[in-house]
Amino acid sequence: MQVAGLPHQLDRLKQHVVNDFQTFQIFNHPNWDGEFTMSAKAIIAYVRHTLTNYEALLAEIEGKPGCHAAYQVIRARVNAIVEKELDDKYGNKWRGEVS
What we know:
63% of the residues lie in helices and 0% in strands. It has helices spanning 10-28, 40-50, 54-61, 67-90. The radius of gyration is 15 Å and the shape is globular.
């Protein structure tokens, strides 16, 4: 598992997260009128879905016996890898903490 394409600047990553969220809402929930809150969870989700092969891994297990349990394991492992990559690149700043 590899995280590919993390921007050099954290602000750029956060802008990608916001843009991706807005695009998702436009196509899936056009009447949604809530507000987006930047969080570590949102950043992890964005990176997991767009900068890893997470979707391909899920496609490999889809419909197979034990896929629901495997999904939980895959997600946890991918999240751990994503968090480490984010820590290595941005320190604690991506979590909203001051280093």
